[in-house]
Amino acid sequence: MKRSNIFVFIELSKFMENLTLNPVTCRADLVARHSYFKIIPPNMFSDALSAEWQGICGQVKRSGPAYNEEGGIIANETRNTIERMSDLECLEIIQRVSELHKKVAAEF
């Protein structure tokens, strides 16, 4: 059985730092850490958990990037999507990442 890479565990641990289930701050927390969705590649997860991470990443990229009037990107797809999500959706993402973090930790 392939286990998740230690890099995944360390980066998910850093990602989880200061994330809360507070509906007032959850969106800001995710926006501040949105780069983790790009820097942790799915192939670093075990086969059992890779699809779960891909599903989370797909959910936070679904709106695509935001553009200005000249066609320049002003927010990447992750930041733009999170900024458009409801508080409930943000809380769900945090819960999913937290559960995934626990599963990765259990692999060690």
Summarize the structure.
By secondary structure, this protein is mainly alpha-helical. The chain has helices spanning 6-16, 26-32, 36-39, 47-59, 77-84, 87-107; strands spanning 66-67, 73-75. It has one domain (6-106).
Describe the fold and architecture.
The mean pLDDT is about 95. Strand 1 and strand 2 form a beta hairpin. This protein has one domain (about 5-105). It is globular, with a radius of gyration of 14 Å. It is mainly alpha-helical and about 110 residues long. A two-stranded antiparallel ribbon has the order 1-2. It contains 6 helices and 2 strands, in the order ααααββαα.
Counted by DSSP, the helix tally is 6
Q: Segments where pLDDT lies below 50 for 5+ residues?
A: none
Range of strand content: under 5%
Return the average pLDDT rounded to an integer. 93
